[in-house]
TrEMBL record:
<protein>
    <submittedName>
        <fullName>ABC transporter ATP-binding protein</fullName>
    </submittedName>
</protein>
<keyword id="KW-0472">Membrane</keyword>
<feature type="transmembrane region" description="Helical">
    <location>
        <begin position="127"/>
        <end position="151"/>
    </location>
</feature>
<dbReference type="GO" id="GO:0005886">
    <property type="term" value="C:plasma membrane"/>
</dbReference>
<keyword id="KW-0812">Transmembrane</keyword>
<dbReference type="InterPro" id="IPR036640">
    <property type="entry name" value="ABC1_TM_sf"/>
</dbReference>
<keyword id="KW-1133">Transmembrane helix</keyword>
<keyword id="KW-0067">ATP-binding</keyword>
<keyword id="KW-0547">Nucleotide-binding</keyword>
<dbReference type="InterPro" id="IPR011527">
    <property type="entry name" value="ABC1_TM_dom"/>
</dbReference>
<feature type="transmembrane region" description="Helical">
    <location>
        <begin position="157"/>
        <end position="175"/>
    </location>
</feature>
<dbReference type="InterPro" id="IPR039421">
    <property type="entry name" value="Type_1_exporter"/>
</dbReference>
<dbReference type="GO" id="GO:0015421">
    <property type="term" value="F:ABC-type oligopeptide transporter activity"/>
</dbReference>
<dbReference type="Pfam" id="PF00664">
    <property type="entry name" value="ABC_membrane"/>
</dbReference>
<feature type="transmembrane region" description="Helical">
    <location>
        <begin position="21"/>
        <end position="39"/>
    </location>
</feature>
<feature type="transmembrane region" description="Helical">
    <location>
        <begin position="51"/>
        <end position="71"/>
    </location>
</feature>
<dbReference type="GO" id="GO:0005524">
    <property type="term" value="F:ATP binding"/>
</dbReference>
Length: 229
């Protein structure tokens, strides 16, 4: 199942903000196309010796660059604001679900693993809801606008330029699977380290009484080394 499916219920209340952010992304992409076009017109004005047009195109280019920067900031604020709200709602729902679990649930799941998921996993969801959604939408908008511009200039050259894309998509799919696998391993290692720390803190009286501090430090170092690998 796609990770976006359960995320949709958290994004739906903020669809107006996401729509506004998408419009700002579209404006950013359009202004990005205006800048090189104005640069081209400015070079042509220099070749003609028409310095009045050169100043005009330079002014439009500067305004477009400024507007693009402001539009980019506005789009990021929209998506990052939504991501923070999603994180708050997700943490609240997770806490409510955790309180509703019976006692055997905590026997099956280590405390350190739960702590790791409440910190690392929720942070990853926030990144997906913010930068992830923004990056996907921005890439889609930029590719569509760029493809339209390229087709208007040279359809045959555009076809040659997009030929490597299927191979690139296959490579990205392979790397995404590897990244997901290693991300799971990292979260598992973090859970083990968190569990060791939690046990050491909660049982420090027993550790001191039996002189187990050295063993606990050695165990923590081993888990930490495995986690860093």
């Amino acid at each position: 199942m796609s990770p976006f499916v359960p995320l949709l219920s958290y994004l739906r209340p903020w669809r107006a903000v996401l729509l506004r952010g998408s419009l700002w992304l579209t404006a950013t992409a359009l202004l990005a196309l205006v800048i090189p076009w104005m640069l081209k017109r400015g070079v042509e004005a220099i070749e003609r010796g028409d310095y009045a047009d050169l100043l005009l195109f330079a002014g439009i280019l500067a305004l477009a660059a400024l507007a693009r920067g402001l539009a980019r900031i506005a789009s990021r604020l929209s998506f990052l604001h939504t991501a923070r709200r999603v994180e708050v709602a997700l943490r609240r729902d997770l806490l409510q679900r955790l309180f509703a679990q019976p006692g055997p649930f905590f026997d099956r799941h280590r405390t350190g693993d739960l702590l790791a998921r409440f910190t690392g996993d929720v942070t990853n969801v926030r990144m997906l809801a913010g930068f992830g959604v923004m990056t996907i939408l921005n890439a889609a908008i930029v590719y569509v606008l760029t493809l339209v511009m390229m087709l208007s200039l040279s359809p045959s050259l555009t076809l040659v330029a997009v030929l490597p894309y299927p191979f690139m998509l296959l490579g990205v799919k392979y790397l995404s699977r590897r990244l997901l696998y290693h991300s799971g391993r990292v979260q598992e290692g973090l859970g083990q380290v968190s569990e060791a720390v939690e046990e050491a803190i909660s049982g420090q009286a027993v550790i001191r009484a039996h002189g187990l501090a050295h063993n606990r430090c050695r165990r923590f170092s081993e888990l930490n080394d495995d986690y860093l690998q």
